[in-house]
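Hi there,

I know you've been waiting on this one. I reran it after we fixed the sequence typo, so this is the corrected version. Both the input and the resulting structure follow.
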Amino acid sequence: MCTDLIAKSDRIVQVGMQRRSSSGWAKLAELTRSGKLGRLKVSHGIASKPRGGIGHKEPKDPPAHLDWNLWVGPAPMQPYHENLVHYDWHWFWDFGNGEIGNQGVHQMDVARWALADATWPTYVLSVGGRIKWDDQGETPNVQMTVFRYADGRVLFFENCNLVSKKTRRVSNDFLYEKGKIIDTGKFEPAEGSDVEKMPDVDVKMGPGSGHFGNFIAAMRSRKKEDLNAPYEEGRLSSGLCHLGEISWWLGKEKTWSDVKDPFEDDYANEQLDRLNHQLTEDQGLDLSTCKMQVGVAMTFDPKTERFVDAPGKANDLLRRPPRPPFDVPDHA
């Protein structure tokens, strides 16, 4: 609906994907389009920052200054408790979708941006779990998700809240035919590559300094094409986060250490092995005592924006019926 409304209006709508206004990130996206490193095979996003358990908070009356009905909005009405307000709502399904849609959506956007004009994938599978903490949170705190596109390119995404100063990462890696770029700036040539250092490319950014400056400049020009981060880019990248969570949510629980090579992708399975080692060595976890949710591998139709040959509930989860009176129409 928002896409239609924006198309029909002269309104300037920017999304908070701030990296879209960074020339450094823009150069990485342009590098893919240039073809100087060959085909981008895997675009890898990482949003792994430390977050502790949130414990348990009992229901109580909301504070007098808080309009609880308005805060809950279209979500199902439920008792107030202090783990919801004002930040930890991210870890509850009625209000958030975990780290993948919190910090993760920013790295997800970069990963999709670098795939050059990628919109919806044709395949998704997500695995992970909420481990170590005995708390009230519901969303996974360790998760890996694979998206595959029609041309075979892969977007791989990981988020892990169980990290140390050494293993924490909020970044992106890119694997090209002629080499890989790690942490957005370290280039490693592939064996036999004819490229020894990261090529330089020119980028054209929208007017204005920084993300806020770009928004103000576009409001003044009234030109939607001046925006670095138009609405549709945010819709697609945040949509990927939801597709991953739907796969995970529909999955089956297994003992973590019993899950071997769940992905149909060598790179993804290698990353899971690396993560398992990190959880064991860095966090001291016994993975035979942890539970992993192995999601459902599903096909997605980019044209209809619906799952194909998937569990019936999958498409129901694409949109939640809102709680009246917070109804949102299907069409503008």
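Quick highlight: The chain is about 25% helix and 20% strand.

Best,
R. S.
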